[in-house]
Amino acid sequence: LHPWEFEKMPEKFEYDEGTFIFKPELSKNCGDFTVKAFDEYIDLCLNDGFKFSSCDEFCEIWRTHEQQDRK
After folding, report:
1. d(CA 8, CA 23)
2. Alpha helix (H) ranges present in the chain?
3. Can you give the pLDDT at residue 70?
4. Is the pLDDT of residue 71 over 80?
């Protein structure tokens, strides 16, 4: 996923010199569709016992495991 996929994407962009028309696949799965799909994915993960962490938390977990592996 890309951050911009959570926003509704325009089908076209008009400017002084013309109009740029995006391919339909670039906008059809953006905005509310992506937000809903991502929310469902998170629920599935949580129901399967997944845990989410920040990058800082992950680094600490990694360091802890590395230290345990060295023993």
Report:
1. 14
2. 32-47, 55-70
3. 79
4. no
**Full-model pTM:** 0.64
Residue for token digits 């990058």?
Answer: 55
Here the contacts of 28-32 (C-beta below 8 Å, separation 24 or greater) are: 29/5, 30/4, 30/5, 30/6, 31/6, 31/7, 32/8
Identity of residue 45: C
Q: Please state, in angstroms and rounded to a whole number, the distance separating the CA atoms of residues 63 and 32.
A: 38
Gap between the Cα atoms of 38 and 44, Å rounded: 10
Query: Among 60, 64, 6, which Cα is nearest to 33's?
Result: 6
